[in-house]
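yo

u said u wanted the structure for the complex thing, so here. seqs first:
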Amino acid sequence: MHEWALAEAVVSTALKAAEKERLQEITKIKIVMGELQQIDAEIFASALKEVILPQKETLKNAKIEIKAEKAVFKCRVCQHIWTFAEATNQLNEEESESIHFIPEISHCYLRCPQCKSSDFEVIKGRGVWVDSIEGEQ
Amino acid sequence: MDPRLEIIDERLKEIKRVIAITGGKGGIGKSLVASTLALTLSKSNNYRVGLLDLDFSGPSTDLILGIEGIYPKEEKGIIPPEIYGIRFMSVIYYAQDNPTPLRGIDVSNAIIELLAITRWGRLDFLIVDMPPGIGDATLDTIRLMKKTQFLTLTTPSIVALGTVKKMLAMLKELNLPIIGIIENMRTAKSPSIEGQINGLDVPYLGAIDFDENLENSIGDKNRLLETAFAQRLREILLRAPQFKLNIVSGL
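structre next:
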């Protein structure tokens, strides 16, 4: 996902949660950022700042906590487990960028290092997740 | 919480109509109808048209329309490139010519991602080319693109008709809007399906005869539009009130 689209999605999620829980103010948003999506943290932070700006009533004091999560794969055929860091040497720049936009495209370009299968599961670190939203009523 | 789900409605809000081309079986002409429908609408008066290929394992609208060498632009998301007046989005930009072996959860995740990042802008029609059947893409289209209207396709074969009846039963049970059913690849020897769908309460929009010359027009949008197939589809479009086309000129 593009960083800007991600920032918009996170803010939209926070505002909907605030409405649902009748929060006057959001104080903290915890985001988990999966390694496979290769989000540029700096671009994301500046996009987030800009998207939050018109929502200053609800989000002006919101603390954004971002936790990076390493991507881990598990082969469905031979059960081998490996990490994205071990797999990145299989990718050229274009392939890597395609995975950035749609992480499932990893099935086109990555293979299990043990049995060469493309039938693997991303067991951790796929993409972006809002872990929790805290606020005051 | 998956933040992507919260932004999809926003991404689709400037689209007036979403039409999914569905059918129970592969090889019945869904991608050809989707591509030709998008082309025909984009040529008509002032219609802004998008085409989304959701058939990840067999994307083919790019082949049918002869689309190559274009790529989306990044601008606060992804802007689909425009070709022949159609904003075109497909997994081929990212998968290229490689196979895309995705299981159900991966198909669903990829659809959510595409819908969350694609900025279509203002469209009169978004035509969605669906994979066959009532699997993940159909279920996600129902779940995530709430304004979708379904245009179903069958051939006269009892095999295709049998499966499309199941799809229509599901859509009707969910009370979803069905534009109607088009019978494709009819031959002189084909029994009419019109009588066989009477009990379904779904509009029969018409039949398109099997067009032997269609294959030769694949990849060339001008030749495609000149085929008997495309001309018949256009007639059905203009005649069927279910399409509610407001055409001043141009078709």
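The first helix of chain A runs from residue 3 to 20. Chain A touches chain B at residues 1-2, 4-6, 8-10, 12-13, 16-17, 47, 98, 101-105, 107-109, 118-119, 126-131, 133 (CB under 8 Å).
cya
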